[in-house]
Design goal:
- By secondary structure, the protein is of the alpha+beta class.
- The protein has 2 domains: about 5-105, no CATH class; about 110-390, no CATH class.
- It is built from 8 helices and 25 strands.
- The chain has helices at about 5-15, 95-105, 160, 165, 235-245, 245-250, 290-300, 380-390, and strands spanning about 20, 40, 45-50, 50-55, 60-65, 70-75, 90-95, 110, 120, 120-125, 135, 145, 175-180, 185-190, 195-200, 225-230, 265-270, 275-285, 305, 325, 330-335, 335-340, 350, 355-360, 375-380.
- The strands form 6 sheets. The chain has a 7-stranded antiparallel beta sheet. It has a 7-stranded mixed beta sheet with strand order 17-18-25-24-23-19-20, with helices on both faces.
- A hairpin with a 4-residue loop joins strand 5 and strand 6 (about 70-75).
- It is elongated.
- This is Deoxyribonuclease-2-alpha.
- Belongs to the DNase II family.
């Protein structure tokens, strides 16, 4: 009998989807034809407790089920030739062995918890000036925690893991990155039946660098930075494109970008069973709108408290009842780590009361009236509560 051991024997006996690490030929591909019994190929390179390995030099053949407690070592590679050869697989049923290899096989297009070892629906990391790790908030968001590693480390923390598909070449991952206008990246998983993407928005210039070893720019440790990650379905990507690149979107559709509307509001949701609602406010430079007062406060119908570098022209504004713009006093404390406007390049706001937190890509300055701008507003009471504590003091408003 001619049988292919991975699909016809192991997956069939385990009655599970399996993830395979093995050298492969150009004939035997990933296989997602049988529901519940897919053959997924682990992306190269991998990290074995921070030691790198790639298919070019690694002659091992092993697999794990997508979920469970089994690890299998196979004596033949994932290639069509093994259909015509004797083959043996030794499968050990032990949860701890499975867990170690599951970490190795976990190439991701989702946000990750603080240590990078499990998926997360969302992540907020605030790195005050001078800090190398900062504070991290993951679901449910009851309290800040210490980020477990320096941000330049290539493993064992949330953003290094989430960005590994950008930093290295992975055939089953795609991403598009954009910078200097709501700096960020969207990471896609192209393997069927995956329907997941990670949207990462941050304030760090020239980060991440694509297709080179992951790192964090050492010069940016001196500054305060904010990093957000949202796990979304791929269906949510188009609203992000519309918000972050509205002019490009119009041009691609054959529209003239000089006509209104010059601002937009999009709503997306995270991928969790109890999804978090996220509003994206954006405007073009042609609009000449001031995004904080004219768009965000107006849309939220609330007084807002703003943390941002500011010029000497745009002041706190208390002219519109119920829609004041209050400026958070400097310095602030992020769970015991100090930050001040002199070194903090983040721009964020919360309403005076409510359950919303917004990260904005432009500072509270008159210059942003003439520039495109984007605000990402997450509606979650626990995130709001953490930033509300930080924003407890505001400057007087005349």
């Amino acid at each position: 009998m001619i049988s292919e051991i991975y699909q016809k024997i192991i997956s069939k006996q385990l009655k599970k989807t399996i993830k395979v690490w093995s050298r492969r030929d150009k004939k035997l591909k990933a296989n997602c034809k049988i529901p519940g019994r897919h053959i997924l190929l682990v992306s190269s390179p991998i990290s074995v407790d921070n030691q790198a390995s790639s298919l070019e030099k690694d002659v091992t053949n092993w697999l794990i089920p997508e979920n469970g407690d089994i690890f299998c070592a196979v004596d033949k590679p994932y290639a069509i030739s093994q259909k015509y050869e004797p083959a043996v697989a030794v499968c050990i049923q032990l949860a701890n062995i499975f867990a170690r290899f599951n970490t190795i096989a976990a190439k991701t297009s989702k946000c990750k918890v603080a240590d990078g070892n499990a998926d997360a629906d969302w992540v907020v990391l605030y790195k005050p000036p001078g800090e190398k790790r900062g504070k991290i908030l993951v679901p449910p968001g009851d309290a800040w925690a210490d980020n477990p590693q320096d941000l330049e480390r290539a493993a064992d923390h949330s953003f290094a893991k989430a960005l590994e598909s950008v930093a290295q070449n992975h055939q089953d991952k795609r991403f598009f990155a954009y910078n200097n206008a709501a700096p960020g990246v969207v990471i896609l998983d192209t393997t069927a039946p995956a329907d997941a993407a990670a949207w990462i928005v941050h304030t760090v210039p020239d980060y991440p660098k694509p297709k080179v070893a992951y790192t964090f720019p050492a010069s940016e440790y001196a500054n305060g930075h904010l990093l957000l990650c949202l796990t979304i379905s791929e269906s949510q990507i188009e609203p992000i494109e519309v918000s972050t690149r509205p002019t490009l979107k119009k041009l691609l559709n054959g529209e003239t970008p000089i006509h209104p509307p010059f601002s937009s509001k999009q709503t997306i949701k995270t991928q969790a069973g109890a999804p978090v609602s996220v509003q994206i406010f954006s405007k073009s430079g042609r609009s000449k709108y001031e995004i904080y007062q004219k768009i965000i406060s107006k849309q939220l119908k609330k007084t807002i408290k703003v943390w941002s570098r500011r010029d000497k022209k745009l002041k706190a504004n208390c002219k519109i009842p119920g829609r004041h713009t209050l400026l958070v006093s400097s310095p602030i404390s992020v769970d015991g780590q100090a930050s001040s406007l002199e070194k903090d390049v983040t721009n964020w706001l919360i309403p005076e009361n409510g359950d919303i937190f917004c990260a904005v890509d432009k500072p509270y300055a008159i210059s942003q009236k003439y520039e495109p701008a984007v605000a990402v507003c997450i509606q979650l009471a626990n995130i709001f509560a953490r930033f509300n504590t930080i924003a407890a003091k505001v400057d007087s408003c005349s």
